[in-house]
Design brief:
single chain, alpha+beta, Rossmann fold, 4-stranded mixed β-sheet
Length: about 170
């Protein structure tokens, strides 16, 4: 899409080994990716390397809170169906992310945790929500059972999406 809109250059690469000159990038954005990169420290050092002095990195990762009391019912239904809610390769809290970013030479300027909601209005919404969970390695029958639970609650429930946003700057 970026190429179609004339937003060149577009680079696709391993975040731990970026084929980009040092001190050449104004902004790095990661939406729901940092928690999947192992080891994360390598990627953060690469981000710090390619950022210009004063350059920014903005990242969005799953969080465990905030959730509301009414969130317990749909989350419990999913957890029972899946026999868990998926395990990410790593969980980043604001404190841990701040520590790792600082170790990479980046200074955190803002962290915010917010709860967003995904309303379940139909079976398609339920399927989309369940398939968006990190369910790598889960058997298909568990995933389909998990889709069934919020489908039966359609129209009266929403799935919580607690997210952590982190913004940091290069001091280099």
């Amino acid at each position: 899409m970026a190429r179609q809109r004339g937003r060149e250059p577009v680079t696709r690469a391993d975040a731990r080994r970026l084929p980009i000159r040092s001190d050449s990038v104004d902004t790095v954005v990661s939406s729901m990716g940092l928690m999947l990169i192992m080891p994360l420290a390598e990627a953060l050092h690469e981000i710090a390397r390619v950022l210009r002095p004063g350059g920014a990195v903005a990242a969005l990762v799953p969080a465990r809170w905030p959730v509301r009391p009414r969130d317990v019912r749909p989350l419990f239904a999913l957890a029972v169906s899946l026999h868990g809610l998926g395990i990410l390769p790593q969980h980043l809290t604001a404190r841990l992310a701040t520590k790792q970013l600082r170790q990479a030479g980046l200074e955190v300027t803002d962290t915010q945790q917010r709860r967003f909601a995904f309303p379940i209005r139909s079976a398609d919404d339920a399927a989309m929500a369940v398939h968006a969970l990190y369910t790598l390695g889960y058997p298909a029958h568990r995933i389909e059972a998990a889709v069934d639970k919020p489908t039966r609650m359609a129209g009266s429930t929403e799935l919580p999406l607690p997210l952590l946003r982190i913004v940091a700057r290069s001091s280099g």
